[in-house]
User: Fold these one by one.
Assistant:
Number 1:
Amino acid sequence: MPLVNGGKIVDDSFVKLAVDTPLPEGGDILVPAERFLGEADVLLKRSGKVGVIWPNNRDIAELVPYLGKIAAVALVFPTFRDGRAYSQARLLRERYDYRGELRATGQVLRDQFVFMLRAGFDAFEVKKQADAEAFMQTAKRYSVFYQPTGDGRITALHRRMQLRHSEGVGT
Amino acid sequence: MYAYDEIDRTLVNERVSEFRDQVKRRLSGELTEDEFKILRLQNGVYLQLHAYMFRVAIPYGTLATNQMRALAHVARKYDRGYGHFTTRQNIQFNWIKLAELPDALADLAKVGIHAMQTSGNNMRNVTSDQWAGVAPGEIEDPRIWSELIRQHTTLHPEFSFLPRKFKIAITASDHDRAAIRIHDIGLRLIKNERGETGFEVLVGGGLGRTPFIAKTIKHFVHGRDILSYIEAILRVYNQYGRRDNIYKARIKILVHELGIEKFSREVEDEWQQIRNSSLQLDDEMIEDIRSRFTYPAYEKLPHMPDELRQAAADPDFEAWRKNSVAPHKVQGYSIVTISLKPTGGPPGDATAEQMDALADLADKYSFGEIRVGHEQNLALPHVAKRDLPALWKALDKLGLATPNVNLITDIIACPGLDYCSLANARSIPIAQELTRRFANHELANLIGRLHINISGCINACGHHHVGHIGILGVEKNGEEVYQITIGGRADENAALGTLIGPGVKFDEVADVVEDIVEAYLALRERPEELFMDTVKRLGVEPFKERVYATR
Amino acid sequence: MTSPLEQKKIRIAGPSVVTANRTWDGIVVYRTAGKSWSAELSEAAIVRNSDEAKALLAEAVADDVGAIGPYIAPVQIGDDGKVLPGNLREQIRRTGVTIGQPAQI
């Protein structure tokens, strides 16, 4: 499954651990939420980076105390129809000010990329190679956005205000 | 009318090109049907019994004449020459080819029409009073707010994959013509004691398998906060709405399971975190949207022109005027409802020719504007009273002057088993038979206001729960069986109907309705007592007795 | 989506066909014995027991590009061997709506 990060297909430095996989000596690891919360002290003392795989039915606020110490949060789309992780992503970025890697995992397809980018994801475990290759092209598909999110793109309402003021038609 | 600007046009065009690419990938096999289904639904494309069905949004029910002509064009070029207006201010085409859909969408985009989110588990078309902006006594034109909400919820990055579909309706009148109490969110525009505009917010209404009337979640949300308040409701719903069972996934179930107090606390907590964000509307933003709704340059006209006085001698004209023409906020003008319920016709259907001809009439008599209401009728919102006789004659020639608005033959019906892959029983033939039984205008008029609603399955697209007489088709041992309820209503006093007894067969439905109506005529205290008031006074028993005494 | 093959145990009560809607234009089609689709019910492969039905459906499901939403539908075989739809829904799918379409003016 190709990983897209920074708009490009890249090698994934993280190794995913299951609940009972023995902890490797070094290297970057992605750990299921349950295990992370249970062994946080040990995990965070290791040399490699640590990320958490957070299920979409668990309150993301539980992760807040650790956000400064972890390198990645992987949110899960068990199917592409299940949109809970979009809310979790926005909360992480916009409410809890998380700045590390925010990764979309599970059923991640081309036609969700724009939504995911807008919700704050910056890394994508893409299900299909062709979708991963089409990432940059797909990300540029829209130039107009109606709602404000943490991605900083200007909304239609605000752009209209700018246009009004720049054209001096503010009547 | 709301005029699209370059920003709106760009978005619609970008959406069309995205969908074109999605269709291409589907037809090449790059996308499986399982993957594509949600993408086509997000753009209003269903699979029905005979073909794909294509649902086009008519936001808050307002159409310009060039838009109506574009709908006629789509009906003619890509479909079978007609369309079906729905209870949510949309229009459906029943025979569209997937391969041609991107072209149809591109044709519609040229006049600012789209099909975004007319199906799928996202925010659906924001609906409103079809008399918005012209009805006397409104707080303000609810379409300004409908448009703000439409924009905010279009391609929303967080709420495009909700547990289930989500519908908002807005009214600004005391009399609710938008059926807000059977919506996921119902908004009633009001002013607070300081004279500021805001909303009473209702939540958790809906019909279907488990019908609920919406409950008030907040008595006043200031207009500037409405987007953040809706966002808070959606966020709570997106996280906690059930996804394990499609029949329990609507917000009404979440509200019911949590209780309105707990649900509203969750929303309140979320709202307090986001209300002072960029979601807050300032006056200038609201004014910008408001300024793009233009209103006709009305003339100063007499309340009772000579033309109208003369035409009053014609009983056919008067019959039509009495139930199709409503007061306008400007003196000398009227709102004209156009019945899409001809005797023997499928409720809500219009041919391409009728659409084109109506567009011409709207240009001539209604400042180029047409409305679509949830009762599956159309309206011309700005007709000078002096033009009413001429308009009536023209409508009559088109088969669009049936004088039955709000009468027993003004039936709301879903497409039913004739079109719909979810249906268990037919709806349209039942409606057709009822319009024949009650075709006599004197009789219909004697009966007075009476709404019949017909659904062909438990999903309740025909809103049978809130019909004064509700008819629900089910399937039993391979046969169509119909359950009859009475006493429902969809307005500001919304209520769910009560089942009167065992289901009846296809051929018996019209007889049963006749029995109910005869019982009502015998039981009412005076001619002004409407059917629903008699049912309220006496309950269902006397009607039940009448219907089942001989069956 | 659960595959139609897994939805429930496939059991048929009488002669049946596999029907679906053609992907590119949506029209009603029937699975033929020649591993393709036809708009004619008379050309449909008739299955008479659950194993045959399951096999035909599996083959139809595999052709996801050709047609969508395949399922098993009952048919009746007339004395003359003519194949007729087995219920009202299938009757309507085959012959169209039971109502007049709106009159052209």
Number 2:
Amino acid sequence: MSQDLLRIDDLHVAFSTRRGMVEAVRGVTLTVKAGEMLGLVGESGSGKSVTGFATTRLLDAAGRVTAGKILFRGQDVTKLRGDDLRQLQGAAMSMIFQNPRAALNPIRAIGLQIADAILTHKRISKQAARAEALELLRAVQIRDPEQRMNAYPHELSGGMCQRVMIAIAISCNPALLIADEPTTGLDVTTQKVVMDLLADIAAARGMATILITHDLGLAARYCRRIAVMERGRIVEEASPNTLFSAPRHAYTRRLVAASPTATSRIEDLVTEEERERYTAVLGKPRPTLAHGTPPLLEVRKLAKRFDQGSAAVADFSMTMASGESVGLVGESGSGKSTTSRMICRLIDPSEGDIVFDGQSIGHVASRDFHRSPLRKNIQMVFQDPNESLNPRFTAFDCIAHPLMRLDGMRAGEALRQRVEECAQRAGLPLDLLPRFPHQLSGGQKARVGIARAIACRPRLLVLDEPTAALDVSVQAVVLQLLDRLRRENDIALLFVSHDLNVVRMLCDRTIVLRNGGIVEQGESRALFENPKTDYTRKLVEAIPHIEAGPALVAAL
Amino acid sequence: MLSYILRRIVATLPVMAIVALFVFSLLYIAPGDPAVVIAGDQASPEDVERIRQSLGLDRPFLVQFGSWVWRILHGDLGTSIFTNLPVSAMIGQRLGPTLSLMVVTLLLTIVVAVPLGVVAAWKAGSLIDRVIMGFAVFGFSLPVFVVGYMLAYIFALELEWLPVQGYTPLAQGFWPWLENLILPAIALGCVYIALVARITRAAMLEVLQQDYIRTAKAKGLGQGGILFIHALKNAAVPIVTVIGIGIALLIGGAVVTESVFAIPGLGRLTIDAILRRDYPVIQGIVLLFSFVYVLVNLMIDVVYTLVDPRIRY
């Protein structure tokens, strides 16, 4: 036991809330050896981040360790105070966070932010600290480090910000680094680059790392040992291979099943609640379209230029048939969101036309489109269900609103019935309708967003990363729901995402965008199995597959 | 940066023009005929008419406005109807005391209110926080003249630590100057300190919840470094804004404060001019205050760009 760098022993953490004390961590025991990378996997609310924050002593004021020990090099971290604690934080033990841009001070040059960390723990001059900061920027492979020293976080991409965070975290050569969802929200390709960098640095410096993530595939790719957490407890601890081939705990089995792999189909993502309704729909044959049926949506040479600078989207053309699902993939900045917003008529294209059901809508100004009778035919599901619902509207109001605005319904029994019908189609329990968004879980909020979007029986649904903010098990449910709605109601789905696994499962066809232009398009399965361009190949290779388990990163 | 400031100055021109039009219209909106007032109770209608003509009050509105603006642009604010002295000279005489009072109050506010707000946010929910915020509510609710007379009674009349009233120019020494301004500045600053402390607390609370504060803690930075290097500067934009808006409070408050403490400043001049319906003087003062306010706003905009690199100019 003595060679354990970190030993967490029966840790309990509780938060005081308005409804009394809530236990977030209930008896976690785990060990980390020097130089090892441990994956701590679980869904939101499982207590994995809280365990990390308790270890680095960064819990919110409301959180408290109520029992247990956290022994770091034999010293109980939970009992440290004042200077002893500060000598530990950022020096022997450091942390990097989710959402790197928010984790950096927006109005302080990044060079200074790195130097801050160095000067806190080393008695050296400011010049020397600056020189070290520059060295660290080089170590995290930031190009033109001299110039970047004076850059502010908003001038850097998300991936660059996370590199800066890594530079800060490793500045004092810690023995333990805790990475809390370090790549969530980054593009797949950036994700891979950042994780590879982190793994290389950890290996080169002999740093032990705890990788906290909700992504089993990611943990499997980089860790030799994975601990699975559920509701504040560790339910299983094993190597990735064992975990995926023979998961013992029921929760692990569910998690493994819900994680999309390179070959999984939507029906494989087992979730009891949706499964029956879903398989019932799968049996029905798709209505075949008569030859020569005009497409539902036709986009011709669409382009968008913002005030200054180059085109965000250029020469984008596509067609979609009724009931078809098309994926729009690409890294951030590739123009996929801009394109989807133009098609939804939320922003105006600079050039080109959009023809929906035989009617040209590209020239209707977006601010007037809400009066168009076609508004209800094109609806959108937005990225973050937490942010895109009005916090003062109940679930009922959210769904009723478009019905009143676009279908001219008045408050009353008929409206109530329509709202309940939509909720049922979206799988939202009716007793949740009077609730406000903050009283709903992430998955329930996603259902409200979908119920709202399908309320007016649209024929085209544009989905902008609808599952990016959701846990894998919730994502599985939402994907099945979307696919069922498509099959039941013949709704066409335009699915914007950087998650290629999801696109491959849900979409018949896929369009790959880069720098505002189409790089490649075709039938999804074929496109992912045999990418024709390097760019698509890079995207596909970057997907953290669960099969990647045996092919652990060589550096480890 | 320079072009940004120039552009901002140009942008203030329409504002100043509208203010000028409003100020000039005062003469027409306000009740009472200035010609009658100047002529006095004994004057005949012919006398009134003669005065009206000599002042140009009989000419069309826009012509009067045009010549008025023309004169102002040449630095001529007109002549007081009552004292026959140039308005600019009258304002010049009274500028020193008012400016002194406002500057001392502003500095006092920043030095007192910002640290109070920071401490209140840092110790949010604690006894210290409640005491500070209790004081803030108190400061909001008390009118300037009540605080003024209370302070004068306690510290000047009873304890005899400071003078009761009056003003000594800075030229006669720093302490005599400051001595006379301490009580007025506290009285005038009460509302202002309460306001700035509250906003500072709110802005700091918001910033202290941000992820980068957690990063600063993770780096092992001490409490001081976190509060003052990382948090306060990020909270500065709303704080600077409210300090700037507060200048308007100061202008209004100075009028009352100067009456209470018998300071021969612009506030007193304003009251006298209003009571005498001395329109050129009223116009001159309102124009000056508006100009100061626009200038302060310009300075705030410049400070924003210094504080926050994301605000582009």
Number 3:
Amino acid sequence: MNDLAVDVRKLSKKYGTLLALDRVDLKVEEGKLFALLGPNGAGKTTLLRILTTQFEPTSGDAFVLGKNVITQGEELRELISYVPQEMSVWMDISGYENLLIYSKIYGLSAEERKDAIRDSLQLMDLADAANRLVSTFSGGMIRKLELACAVMIKPKILFLDEPTIGLDPATRKTIWKKLRALNRESGTNVFFSTHYMDEAELYADEIGIMNKGKLIKVASPEELKRSVSSDLVTIESGSLISRSVASHLRRLKDVSCVEPKGDIVEISTRSSEESLGGIVKSLLADGVVIKKISTRKPTIDDAFLRYAGTKGSSQDVGRLQELKRTRERIRRG
Amino acid sequence: MNINEYTRVILAMIELEIRRIMHDRTELYLRAVQPLLWLLVFGPVVGSFHSIPTGNIPYTDYIMPGVLVQSTTTVAIFFGLVVIWERESGILKKLVASPSPDVAIVMGRSMAAGTRAIFQAIFIIPFAVLMGVTIFPNPLYPLAALIIVFVASSGFASLSIFIASILKTRERFMGLGQVIILPMFFGSNALYPVSSMPPLLQLFATVNPMTYIVDALRGLLITGNISQLPLDIVVIIIFDAVLISIASMSFKRIIE
């Protein structure tokens, strides 16, 4: 049990009548970068906040690094760091002062403190900006400062709630590079939530797909993509695709699904490379004029769609806007 | 539970507040305007009627401790706004997930407000002297007065944190702040002796912690009569203990 970073058993959390977490079971081994992927309201934040001992679950058990989050909260809090989704640094003091105050709250000794602050500023590329007021920082710099606060205390496990939300792609990439390096070099566990599929796919060792309070599937990005299995071939023709054309296509080897939509037909196949020849031959034999062919490999999006039954990122746009506005408002004080 | 853990969290938060004040003192200046008006306008005008029995103290001198308490209490009560801001941002969540015990967080945030109140007092007292208020000539007394200001304001800040944990939004909070301060101010011995009040108000004044805070400060800063000081201190400490406990108990609610 000790080699599990996170061990969650039948965990449920109710807010009034709303079931935010519904009997979640999850085991994450030590040393991993673990992503909780899901749309907003899926229960990701609730799970993170229970794991960081902020409130108790309604039922079930949760262990982090072998410590019970309910009964051993005090010991556990010494081992973890948590970066909430919202802004979590003081705006009216400098970046350096933020780290200084946090280091004192965490009880780092005077010698430890000096090195820890310097190292974390350097790690997050904030050494030059350290003495500026945080209110003059950009969104990306604020996020880096929050991460600097979190890594400064050298936690065994880092809990990050939507660590890159609202940031530009370049900043997102740098932040992930740093988190990944931290994970690989010092073995720090990283447990994060995101609704960016690409992020989960690129940076996580393991992904847990959540929707409506349920943890639906846990697997590596590769496994997830493989489990979706089929490639998609889309053919655009000048004329309507007839039923007989579609039924000829269905007879081809490895083709699992054929969907004619007007003059477009979508064909699911195990491997587009292997099936394309046969598809084209069949269409030509039926006298179909081919205007355009496109093929697509499965992505985490498809896996997500399959397991969660809903699209991930698109519906979050409104919510993201709202969050940006809140952050903006908070910054202005 | 160990004392070191508490001390370090509290000291860190006091330091945070001092650094904050060093970066931006605008609030301190703006909040000084109101007490200065009391001393500059209200005191001399009402004092000129000679209608309030203040012993042989000039009226402006008489109300100076009360005005000081009102001003520092305002600072403390509105500290809840800082806590609400820290709730809207993720700071409180982060603090709750840190090894600091809730009680230490509440005490730390409260004493940070107490620290801000001291700065406010340090700003107001010399101004009062400039305006002709005679401070009791014992250098230890003003020092003791500052400690009283610190402790009392910390108590009011706990009250403020408790209110913040219930109201949760700044709009509601803004409204309530004044509703708390003014009745306590007018229902105390800040502007007139308790003995000159109607009976019902006298009763309120005797359970009103502000009466004791004003009494302590008046003794230390103006009259030099500190016979009531032990009682005042006991009341203030009980007030603090009760409010810190209540605020700590409801603290987790603020982040839910």
Number 4:
Amino acid sequence: MDRFVFLLSTGLARGAVLALFALSLVIVWRAARVVNFAQAAMAVVAVYAAFALTAASGSYWLGLAGGLAIGALLGAAVERGLMRRLPHLTPLPGMIVAIGLVMVLQSGLAIAFGPEHRPMRPPFSERPFVIGGVPVLSPYELFVLVTAAAVMGALALLFTRTSLGLRLRAAAFAPETSRLLGVRVPRMVTLGWTLSVATAALAALLLVPTELGLNPHAADLLFVNAFAVAVVGGLDSPLGALAAGIGVGVLSGLVTGYVSASAAPLAVLALLMVVLLLRPGGLFAPKEARRA
Amino acid sequence: MSTFAFHELTVGYGDGAPVIAGLSLEIPDGAVVALLGANGAGKTTLLRAACGLVPARGGRVLLDGEDLSGLSTEDRVRRGLALVPEGRSVVAELTVEENLRLGALWRHRGPARTRAVEAAYELFEPLARRRGAAGHTLSGGERQMLALARALVADPTVLLLDEPSLGLAPLVVSQLLGVLRDTAERTGLTVLLAEQNVTGALSVADRGVVLSLGEAVADRPAASLAADPALRHAYLGF
């Protein structure tokens, strides 16, 4: 039972990071109808920036803020400089360019900083609190959970309660109609990329201190799992990303604890397969529209 | 409120022959003009080119004498142009209320936005009962009402409508056209109404323009057009 509680709570923290990264994929998918395969590489660039800032200033928080800003800028720059110039008739050019971007960014990082793992210190202790003799969350995991929840809450408010959010959603669902209503759709697409990559950078920033350390491939596995999460949830659904993220985090935590760490990715893939067989649109795919 | 005009406008797709060939047409301030013609006459293309959704090969689109040609769709809309496109242009994923607010966003701020949306509900009572309903649950008639209400909520000076009666019951059509006529009379809105429903369109229009293969073949007062069987046979097929 102790073990179950411990695995569950660690799984929750992992799930929160997964959900956050999956949410970033959902945001960019909704804004630009692109699965951004470069999301992990772009997020890692932001983490390197945060690492450098923290090393230079000695402040984790300055690094965090700088990393998010760099992530946001990178998102805008990639959309304006690269993605916007591609033909949009099929999704293929966007995917290929994104994969190319992964190679460029990862090689660039390896050339600039070397391929080794650089340990990143978390701002809080990673020793779990012990409640009634049972080890539960560590202070850092608690920080991850609270941060992820706060950011997801803020994004939900932005999208559903503000007029900017209304414009972002309308531009994503019906670009032509939105333009006819005076919405500056190209600006909304750039903003979607900005929000998306900043969110992905945050997820990577929260993850890296719990891993071996920072290297150009530090977020690759996160991307693979988060992509599975986003598809399981339904690529169009932020709520799906949240639910599936927590679910997959807990599942892989439990499988790691009770079976073995190497079985965890298989469990995620098995879940993905079952969901795709039963509900190809994802668990939270929108219902069919009235046509008559 | 505004004069709208096409000057020698030519529009086409790809390398094909132009769909609109050197069309010149002026719609004076406050006029309601019906744009008639069979399928393929170029009605939709003309309206889409007016909004910049289809690029023009040549010629100009003028709003109060100002050339709109270089402007993006969103900037043309922000000069006072509005298009209710053909078919179901309601954003299906948004609610009725969100669709209306979206239409009002660039024009109105704060309390004025709420007032504009409320005014739209007064104009189209059935929509008020479905404020919170998602666009995809609306009937065809409700969708067309919402599309028209959403265009009017931004107080445009020129309104272009592309076959608002398509696929709707006669009762709904007469209601929609009634609101259109009343609004035009009340606000001095300039209207260009593309329709296959000739009788309905001419009943609210002052003037009718018949388009055939991208050219204006008739341009006359609505009453005289409605009473000309030869023209109806030749271009409108009844």
